[in-house]
Design a protein that fits this description.
Bound molecules: 2-aminohexanedioic acid
Strand order of the largest sheet: 15-16-17-14-13-19-20
Number of domains: 2
Strand content: 15-25%
CATH architecture of the largest domain: 3-Layer(aba) Sandwich
CATH class of the largest domain: Alpha Beta
Distance between the termini: 75 Å
Number of helices: 14
Oligomer: single chain
């Protein structure tokens, strides 16, 4: 029997209308969860509940909030196998990837349980003698959290944990494809001790509940991870409202491989960065820029590695890559592969696989012979599709890498310290990796890009406090001693 889940508003389960199904992309005859889609009125109720719960939650002590976050982190870590299995089943990343993501989510709650006890304000002397100044942090209020399907538990965790830690209340809308992990997360946090209304879960269509969550006057901040188009729409809708908006959008992330690279390290960086999580990461190493002298050897080594690559059911043992998440993403992947071919690229792999089950299986696609300006090197695919551009030397590689307009992450594979240092200083990306995949980030460090890829303060780590609080500057004239 399929488990039925629901929205949660003010601590109550809201069943909603029928129609929500959470299918397993490895085998679409497997219904992972059933749920009712809610309408705009329920989103509105969730915002009202978060508004009503805000004053009391903001007035709790940091210790009270830390204890709840810590308890939730402990449960997430203790259930990593089971929650990892659910995540792999509904999203399609492999079991080790899914379990790793759950562990990351648990660590994020532990991190913010500790962070909330750290000093985030400071005191100053005024230019006027005898006057004291303090700068303190206050919660923003009600935060709308809107998350994508590709990290069903880690992205919600890295938005919800700091929001709650600093005293905000939350309305959370996960992607329609992955409600199962979202429901478990909210359930864990509520049982860990959150008062009713502090964290509300809205399972509904983006087109129905999204506009309420981004424009309702009771919402003080919106944090969104997803496509550039939707993100820009949120920003435009916000313009007259002047609330805090944090956007994590697309990435077109170059991996530069230069002549002096260690070949084995470069091949692994590309394969893990490009095809890990089925390439469905905004940090994916989606285009590779390779200098002339190592190009052919590198391509041959990647091809050999991909020859042994195993694609299959996300939960099968020994699988390196699970399926594409759904038919629409699969269609996008195939369209980009055809487009790259029509622009002159030679496609190695990138074929539909019939593995017996009704899943969306695509073999990894490596596209060589592409030019820097080809569409495949400009736009985000979000699938297991990696293109290769051949360049003369490091200088040209840097210029091609920096021609991306979605500068989230960039990598270089080199054994030359001078090139590594130069690349770190001169890359346009928000995150730079040396001899590592462009994807895969720690739970406790700032995350974000430049260009079209991000808007607003960085997520995660110590930087998260900038978005989830507002600072207050207060002056005191203590007067003469009595
Ligand atoms: C990672 O590379 O480990 O949506 C994280 C995404 C990013 C997260 C990537 N916001 O893919």
């Amino acid at each position: 029997m399929t488990t039925t889940i629901s929205s949660i508003v003010n601590g109550e389960r809201i069943v909603g209308n029928a129609g929500g199904v959470d299918l397993n992309p490895s085998d679409t005859s497997d219904v992972v969860r059933e749920y009712g889609q809610v309408d705009a009125a329920v989103a509105k109720d969730a915002i009202k509940a978060a508004r009503a719960a805000f004053p009391a939650w903001a007035a709790t002590t940091p210790w009270q909030r830390a204890e709840i976050l810590d308890r939730a982190g402990t449960e997430i870590l203790a259930r990593a196998d089971e929650l990892g299995d659910l995540l792999a089943r509904e999203e399609g990343k492999t079991l080790p990837e899914a379990r790793g993501e759950v562990v990351r989510a648990g660590q994020i709650f532990k991190y913010f349980a500790g962070d909330v006890m750290q000093p985030h304000g400071y005191a100053l002397d005024s230019v006027r003698p005898g006057i004291d100044i303090t700068v303190t942090r206050e919660p923003v209020g009600v935060v709308s959290v809107i998350t994508p399907w590709n990290f069903p538990i880690a992205i919600p965790a890295w938005k919800i944990a700091p929001a709650l830690a600093y005293g905000n209340t939350v309305v959370f809308k996960p992607a329609e494809l992955v409600p199962g992990s979202a429901f478990e997360l909210v359930d864990i946090l509520n049982r860990a001790g959150l008062p009713a209304g502090v964290l509300n879960l809205v399972l509904g269509r983006g087109s129905v509940v999204g506009p309420i969550m981004t424009t309702d006057p009771d919402v003080n901040a919106v944090t969104f991870t997803g496509s550039v188009g939707t993100g820009k729409g949120i920003l435009a809708a916000d313009a007259p409202l002047s609330r805090k908006v944090q956007l994590e959008l697309g990435g077109k992330n170059p991996l530069v491989v230069v002549d002096d690279a260690n070949l084995a390290i470069a091949v692994e960086a590309l394969v893990q960065g490009g095809f890990g999580s089925t390439g469905q990461r905004c940090t994916a190493s989606s285009f590779t820029v390779v200098t002339d002298a190592i190009h052919d050897q590198f391509v041959a080594a990647v091809q050999e590695r991909l020859g042994k690559w195993t694609t299959g059911d996300a939960r099968a043992a020994g699988i390196e890559m699970g399926p594409v998440v759904d038919p629409s993403q699969l269609e996008t992947d195939l369209r980009y592969i055809e487009l790259a071919r029509s622009e002159g690229g030679q496609v190695i792999g990138g074929e539909l696989l019939d593995l017996g089950a009704k899943g969306h299986y695509l073999s990894p696609a490596l596209i060589v012979g592409t030019n820097a300006n080809d569409t495949i090197n400009r736009e985000e695919v979000f699938g297991p599709v990696v293109s290769v551009v051949r360049v003369k030397d490091y200088e040209e590689a840097l210029a091609v890498a920096n021609s991306s307009t979605m500068n989230l992450s960039a990598g270089i594979c080199t054994t030359d310290l001078a090139k590594a240092s130069h690349f770190k200083r001169n890359s346009k990306a928000g995150m730079v990796m040396v001899n590592l995949p462009t994807a895969g980030v720690d739970p406790h460090v700032p995350f974000g890009g430049k260009g079209d890829s991000s808007h607003g303060p960085r997520e995660q780590g110590y930087a998260a406090v900038d978005f989830f609080t507002v600072s207050k500057t207060a002056y005191t004239n203590p007067g003469a001693p009595a």
